[in-house]
Amino acid sequence: MPRTLDPELRRALAERVRYCHEMGIHDFYRRESAAPDQIPSSTFQSEPREEMAARKSVVARTIIEDNLVAITPNSELGVSDPAAALKLIREDLGDCTRCKLHQQGRKQIVFGVGNPHAELMFVGEGPGADEDAQGEPFVGRAGQLLNNMIKAMGLRREDVYIANIVKCRPPGNRTPEPDECGTCSPFLMRQIAAIKPKVLVALGATAAKNLLAMNSSLGDLRGRWFDFKPPASDPSWPGARLAVTYHPAYLLRDPRQKGETWKDLQMVMKYLGIEAPKKGAE
Ligand code: URA
């Protein structure tokens, strides 16, 4: 039977989580204890309304304190070197077992790759078989196309940073599920906050919808700018601009969209002041 939270407890819990996020705390471990709906209703029944409300909020607070244990502040907070910060985030991630993907055939975690000082960061959906085998994002066929797109922009793969919404391969390359994205995304947020790119490019609908928390179609999201700033990032960093474009794997299936993708990338290049290499130039 689904358990529903008392609205007061839900509000207090949401407030507490928001506060923790602002403090840069993203990891919560839930300890099973008496859920509010398991508190015998008789506890409050014979009390006057005000006393009952007061008691209830004390109980609510106690339950929240009891349930949120082992709160870890982000270890990279205050670390200004992005490479060092990324290393700390990777250490926090450990041999992650936070979501079910860890027991669905993943060979290894695919953390992210590239320049910790990158101005441009690409975010895909999740590792495929090649990425799972090599431990690096976008190394298969879609990765070759992404490399070509990066080259066409006048950049090298080593100039940018590449990561995914989820860091473990979903079985059979299925789309990552909301709970998997939700569990993994705090680590991606921390990577973005460490790198502080000028531009983020969301590759495909899964990346776009998760980063923007919007359920619009890719057609509606691409071709324009969004502002993006992860929670608990450096207050002096204005955040990134975010553009959405087609996923390279989709372009392999429907190359007709390459022209539209190039328009999106040109929008990014214009903002970053990058000129496309002249034809024939290496
Ligand atoms: N597709 C993705 O979304 N990410 C990868 O790393 C590889 C393929």
Structural notes for this entry:
There is one protein chain. The protein has 282 residues and is α/β, with parallel strands linked by helices. It has 2 domains: 7-70, no CATH class; 82-272, 3-Layer(aba) Sandwich (Uracil-DNA Glycosylase, subunit E), CATH 3.40.470.10. The chain is built from 11 helices and 8 strands. Strands 3-5-4-6-8-7 form a 6-stranded mixed β-sheet, sandwiched between helices. Strands 1-2 form a two-stranded antiparallel sheet. Mean pLDDT is 85; it is low at 31-49 and 55-66.
Task: Record the SSE blueprint.
Blueprint: H1 7-22, E1 25-30, H2 42-45, H3 49-67, E2 68-73, H4 82-93, E3 113-114, E4 120-124, H5 129-134, H6 141-152, E5 161-164, H7 178-195, E6 199-203, H8 204-212, H9 218-221, E7 226-228, E8 240-245, H10 248-253, H11 258-272
Parallel strand pairs: 4-5, 4-6, 6-8
Antiparallel strand pairs: 1-2, 3-5, 7-8
Helix pairs in contact: 1-3, 4-7
The chain binds uracil (URA).
Q: What is the chain-wise order of helices and strands?
A: HEHHEHEEHHEHEHHEEHH
CATH class of the largest domain: Alpha Beta
Structure summary, number of beta strands = 8
* Total discrete domains: 2
Biggest sheet features? 6 strands, mixed
CATH homologous superfamily of the largest domain?
A: Uracil-DNA glycosylase-like domain
Distance between the termini: 63 Å
Choose one word for the global shape: globular
**Helix segment count?**
11
What CATH calls the topology of the largest domain is: Uracil-DNA Glycosylase, subunit E
Which small molecules are bound?
Answer: uracil
Per CATH, the architecture of the largest domain is 3-Layer(aba) Sandwich
Q: Going across the major beta sheet, what is the strand order?
A: 3-5-4-6-8-7
